[in-house]
Amino acid sequence: MSLEMLEQLEAKVQMAIDTISILQMEIDELKEKNENLAMEAQELRNGRQGLAEENDKLRNDHNAWQERVRTLLGKMEHVE
What we know:
This protein has one helix at 3-79. It has 1 helix and no strands. By secondary structure, the protein is mainly α. It has one domain (1-79).
């Protein structure tokens, strides 16, 4: 092989190494973003679950109040 061909090959190998390094950095960044998004998604799921539980409690409280009001109204009708 000539010296020129070796230099071209060396340049191509160096470009390949540089490209691989850049791609590895991008992969690392994407993995980190993925982990962050997964944690955020879990936090959102937990928040959603908490809101659903609070909503159920409020619905139950509302229903209890409605029943109490109905009972009081029924008692008032008997008073008249």
